[in-house]
Amino acid sequence: MLSLVFISIVVVACGNSGSTGTTTLTNGKGCTKIGLLLPDTSTSARWESKDRPLLTQKIQAALPGAIVDYNNAEGDSAAQQAQVEADLVKGDCILIVTAVDSASAATIVASAKARGVPVIAYDHPIESKNLSYYVSFDNVRVGELQGEYIAQHYKEYLEGTNANVAMINGGQTDNNALMFRQGVLNKLQPLFDNGTLKKVYDQYTPAWNNDTARVEMEGILTAQQNNIQIAYVANDGMANSVIAALKAKQLNGKVLVTGQDATVAGIQNILTGDQAMTVYKAIAKEAQAAADLVKAFHDGTTTVSLTKGVTTRTTDGALIPAILETPVAVDKTNIAATVLADGFVTAHEICQGLPKGVGNFCP
Length: 363
Ligand code: BGC
Prior knowledge:
Layout: H1 2-13, E1 33-38, H2 46-62, E2 67-72, H3 77-90, E3 94-97, H4 106-114, E4 119-122, E5 133-137, H5 139-153, E6 164-169, H6 175-193, E7 198-204, H7 210-223, E8 230-233, H8 236-247, E9 256-257, H9 264-271, E10 278-280, H10 283-299, H11 304-307, E11 311-313, E12 319-325, E13 328-330, H12 336-340, H13 347-351
Parallel strand pairs: 1-2, 1-3, 3-4, 4-5, 5-12, 6-7, 6-8, 8-9
Antiparallel strand pairs: 10-13, 11-12
Bound molecules: beta-D-glucopyranose.
């Protein structure tokens, strides 16, 4: 009997496999040196302007005195791996990683695991069964919001019967880009199948490179002789480049352009009428979720109330406990009620550089 009790205690104490998210945590216990590894500074304004400061603030609020050891890989997955190795040597004992490459970052998780260091995949998936947690948004839903918007508004952009759609997707090594595209197709495939809309282009944009998106749009306009009504663009950074290509042909505002991230530039493009919509992802909530997990690791407490049984499946078939926040579609009708009301962007930021009266918004 006694030995049975002993065995069950040992099982609980070692139960930090991360496979259920319901066990008591042991790795990371007492840890106050957190490695934060973000992917780049150029594909979206979010990483430097939102994720970095919010994660730092929220981790330090959850664990007063904690050190946040920040690295940015500038889009180089080998550099990110080297940053992780250096962090582990320095003694960072919990890692929050937005992988440059969802597949190759499995080696990051392996290195960390070898030292008993848990890894939280932040925003981008990491395809490893040894991952501890995944914190992100419902990324298929992000794509569905973009697709839904197109399905509801394409008629405003038709030219005669032409309804040509170009899909400029994100970077293929970020598995989020695959989920966004899947979400869009969940909504638009029926319209492609019945001929309501015609898909004339559908490509991933390597590394979410914003400049490449402009080159893509220029190529599409040439190939289609400017006959494009809808440009599905995966995020605001690429949308801004696509809009530049449209402006060069005086087609801005005449093509439905989507985006994502509710960046200041994205909201400005919505107010000027050059972009139709964006997707607001409350990064404060995402950062808070990561900070809550860090605190749970530090305290060695259960995370059931954080993950609520939600899991995500990796490509190697493992179920990783996850916290997935809810995205919101934003267009000119709800800027005030969403991103402004939340303080995600301010009217001052938005109106800086915009002519007075634009979108009936700036005084
Ligand atoms: C993020 C987006 C971001 C994109 C490029 C995606 O995985 O979810 O918010 O715009 O990466 O950085």
